[in-house]
Amino acid sequence: MRIGELARRSGVSERSLRYYEQQGLLRAERTPGGHRDYGEWAVDRVIRVQALYAAGLNSKTIARLLPCMRDADGGPNEFATTRLVEELAEERDRIDRVITDLVRSRDILDEAIEAASAGLVTPRIPTSAP
């Protein structure tokens, strides 16, 4: 598939896809005319890259991690290192801390909403008499 179709199917801009390729996160074959040509596997790969970025990982870490992950083809984990596993565990711990902080913030906001709502008087809407 061409880059435009991959962008449409994955919901990622063509510019981002070219960046992923520069960073070693995605690879494309080239047609005789020089156009990028991606296999079906690329959609899953791009979605996975997006999820890893959303988790707070940087492109360098993602590039080291991707060969260890199974794509849709079920390829084996051959390239994991102890250090990479440690870094990923640290990232997971960081994400857990952020989640805990967000839940705490949401709870405080819920309390504020409840307190603010308790003092409100619901205005009466006049009804018209028949």
TrEMBL record:
Residues that span the membrane, as ranges? none
Q: PANTHER family annotated for this entry?
A: MERR FAMILY REGULATORY PROTEIN (PTHR30204:SF97), REDOX-CYCLING DRUG-SENSING TRANSCRIPTIONAL ACTIVATOR SOXR (PTHR30204)
Q: Which residues form the HTH merR-type domain?
A: 1-68
**What keyword terms does UniProt attach to this protein?**
DNA-binding
CDD domains in UniProt: HTH_MerR-like_sg3
One matching Pfam family, short form? MerR_1
- Write down the superkingdom of origin: Bacteria
Q: Which InterPro entries match?
A: DNA-bd_dom_put_sf, MerR-type_HTH_dom, MerR_fam
- Protein's UniProt name: MerR family transcriptional regulator
Q: Which organism is it from?
A: Streptomyces fimbriatus
**Which Gene3D superfamilies did the record assign?**
1.10.1660.10
